[in-house]
What we know:
With 375 residues, the chain is mainly α. Helix content is 70%, strand content 0%. The chain has one domain: ABC transporter involved in vitamin B12 uptake, BtuC, CATH 1.10.3470. The chain contains 15 helices and no strands.
Amino acid sequence: MSHRRHLLALGGLLTAAALATLCLGTPVVAPTELPGVLLDGGDGLAGVVVGELRLPRLVLALLAGACLGAAGLVLQEALRNDLAVPEMLGVSSGAALGVAAPLVLALTLPAAVAPLLALAGAAAGGVLTLLAAGFGRSPSAVLLTGAAVSAALQAALLVLMVLADQLDLQVIYRYLLGSLAARTWSDVTGLGPWLVVALPALVLCAPVLSVLRLGDDDAEALGVRTRRARLAALAVAVVLIAPVVAVCGPVAWVGFLAPHLARRLLPAADAVGRLPWAAGWGACVVAVADVPARLALGPVETPVGAWTALLGVPAGVALLRARRGPHTPRRAGRRRPPDGAAAPGTGDPAPRDGAAAAGHGAATGHGAAAPEVAS
Length: 375
């Protein structure tokens, strides 16, 4: 798919998701009335609902999806594994544990501390994965170790949830699935400082990702220190994931689906070219998934993370299989027939090694002529 068609498809889905988010619900706002409702501000119920609830929720969904999509591409390129996602490297689980533990233990902390706790938990989960895997000595070892670390962190979180009362347990459960309910402009502005730090680091990290895809030996031959580069890529992913998890919870599998969409639609692009598209598709996935999360079982809202996992995993697996199918190299030659056997498609016997060597010598003038084969 060309860049133009890719952009049209992405823009169309984002526009449809934005209109559905802003217009559908209680009260219903017609698309023709939407500009007036947004410009009038807080005049009437529709203005308050759209301007103070639906619009910040839409902006937060776009920002969270873009961060998760970009982080997923960074991890997959750095580890050279299409299954490397934040959920399988201990990053998302560590961030969720850092935010949920004070809630379970009834610790009173300012709201501004939550991103720092998420950042500390995500960093701890990622560093623990690298320590157990020998600091990225083998990409496959990092992925397998990360799955084990993630399972251990989730088990620790379940142990803490046993200590919570019923009310806190419901809040934590919805948070752990990833939810955009009751989010306001203060939650959106809380992501601003982290994006200021993450975006320059992401721009600097992107060119190195294409070199890491070549393999450790080739990357080191080009002057890249692979272990340090992987640590830097993990740090960038942590800064992208931690503030999103602090605000929305671990929205599952967006970092898996968005990079695969970018690769499927732009197969010839490198990591630098795919990065903005992965961020755009991540924003689109979360924005689209938030529509049924808000409306499917209304008036009860379901967590958006449940919908991204429900729809994202099978779609990502289908994209992965489709991408490997037509691009899997086939063997160029046929199997060599045994000596004296007829070559496929002909009635002539295959030449023996000695005859072939003699024919080569006759053709080059350095050997005896090949004996004639009687018909």
